[in-house]
Amino acid sequence: MIQIPDLATGGLAVGMLSALALGGGLLRAQRQQAKQRAEIAALRRQLDGALQAFTAEVEHLAARRVPAAARQLTHPHVAVPGPLHPQTARAPLGLALEHVLAGLHTELAAQRTRIDAAAQAGMRGATREIQAGLYRLQDALRGLQQKYDDPELTQTLFQLDHENEQSLRRAQVAAVVCGAWVGLAREESHLVDAVTGGQARLAGYHRVRVHNHLAAGTALVSHAVEPVAIIVAELLDNALRHSAPDTDVVVNLEHVHHGACVTVDDAGLGMTQDERARAQRLVAGSEPILLTELGDPPRMGLAAIGQLTRQFDLSVDVSSPSPYGGVRAVLRVDSRLLSRIDPDERPPAASAPRSTRTASRDEASLDSRVAASDGSRGEASSPSHGYGAEHDDDASGAASGHHAPRDAGGLPQRRRRAKVAGAASDVPAPRPAVRRPEQAAAALGALQAGTAAARSAADEPTGDASTAVPETAGAAPQRIEPAANDTDQTDHEGGTAR
Amino acid sequence: MTGRRGGRPLVPAYLSTGGVARPSRPHLERLSVLTGAGTPAPADLPAAQLALLDALDKGSLTVVEAAALLRLPVSAVRVLAAELIDRDLVLARAPIPPAGRFAPDLLKRVADGLRALKHN
């Protein structure tokens, strides 16, 4: 039988045990809770740290990396800084931020091209108008130059013409850089004319020495004339600008394999490696041109050359130093852009330097004679005004003091009078050294004496009459025939030509 | 002038004289007659002067004729010619004055008179 106290004791014991167990469990739970709280606090701190790091990273992106990336577009040497913490770069956050930068870069580049294209279009329109106006002004000035020959007026006209050429050059180059057409259609022209024309567009054209080693008649096809003139003008402008004012800029025109070369040498300081690389990149014309990349004020010369080389298949090289110390620029014109003009029929401009080749010149004139004799070309048979043409025409026109006026569009053309030496003799007749009035009188006297002698000895052939002239007329034998010819020709000419 | 060369000239006139428009001697006129002196051209002669000298190589030309031949304004040719005259490479003669030329009226009257005499 179980006693009540026993029961109570047992119940107490069980209660105490359970209380102990409960207390232990509670204690453990409390300890665990504290641990978890600490863990949570630690995690929260960590989260705060991560959030701060994230915020700092984004702030860093906004404050440093985005502006740098934007600036890098225009200034490639600017380095975009990495993330604040190097370990972020490998994290997904770093990659996401890189994507932000890449997207920004693409969008900015597109925007920049769009804005630049708009600026170029605006400038193209403006310069085209200016260019057309300047051409009209040029026409007016040239008309005045032909019309008036008062020296003072002409001096002003020459100055205005030169100023106009320079303005024209600037307008044209700006238009070309902005992607416009060169603005002027020219006909097929001598290469040396294009080079000399380019030279004339510069303020310092006095310092340019052109040496022409091309065969006479080397010409450019019509669409290449103006581009070559522009390129030469810009190369010369660079050369003149970067060399001392008392030095010359030397231009050489030479034939090369498959074309012709225009070499521009200056005796300036030359370019550094960087400048040279930049210049070569620009003139190569391989990249599209942005106005904003050309500086302020924009330096358009090389960019214009780049545009033209790309459009017209010309090539320009500025990568080699000149033996004169400065820069050597070489423009190569492919033979596809070259043609031939008969130099007798259409000689180059009077101011263009003469070719140093003489052998090929004779060959060229021979060609022209063949072309003129078969008469297949209408132009070739007309008498030329070329100063190179005289050697050919003298043979046919030897019978009279004048060249026979052949038909050119139905109009007789006056040729200048050539002195005719003994037509049959192959030996070139000695020229009268100077033709002074006294000598002319002596020649006429000799004519009279000769005629009188011939009349007195009527059986003698008239050809020998000239041998009977007095000794006083030194140049008489050669002079009689032209003089006799002249007497009947002068009537038609009004006596002004001699 | 002949219409063979269309378009504008590539090389402006001022280049021929180096921008100078005042001739060193003022008396050259449009119809002054230029004659080459026959001495060989020195090597340092500017291109345009050489071209003018070449044009005068075998005869004489008036200033206007030379200008037309070289396709330059008369004023430029006067400068070129004056420089060549200064270097004794070219001789110039004054134009024949109008008084020295034939008077067509007088000649016609003489011819008419002669014809009248012949018929009488």
Automatic annotation (TrEMBL), chain A:
Q: Which residue intervals are annotated with compositional bias (Basic and acidic residues) in the record?
A: 489-498
Q: Name one GO biological process term.
A: phosphorelay signal transduction system
GO cellular component assignments: plasma membrane
Q: Which InterPro entries match?
A: HATPase_C_sf (IPR036890), HATPase_dom (IPR003594), TCS_sensor_his_kinase (IPR050428)
Q: Where is the Histidine kinase/HSP90-like ATPase domain?
A: 229-333
Q: Which UniProt keywords apply?
A: Coiled coil, Kinase, Phosphoprotein, Transferase
Q: Name the EC number(s).
A: 2.7.13.3
Where composition is biased (Low complexity), the residues are 348-358, 439-456
- Enzyme class name: transferase
- GO molecular function, a single term: protein histidine kinase activity
Per its record, the protein catalyses: ATP + protein L-histidine = ADP + protein N-phospho-L-histidine
Coiled-coil zones: 26-53
This protein's name: histidine kinase
Q: Which organism is it from?
A: Streptomyces regalis
TrEMBL record, chain B:
Q: Please name one Pfam family that this protein belongs to.
A: DUF742
InterPro entries in UniProt: DUF742
Which PANTHER family does the UniProt entry name for this protein? DUF742 DOMAIN-CONTAINING PROTEIN
Q: What is this protein called?
A: DUF742 domain-containing protein
UniProt source species: Streptomyces regalis
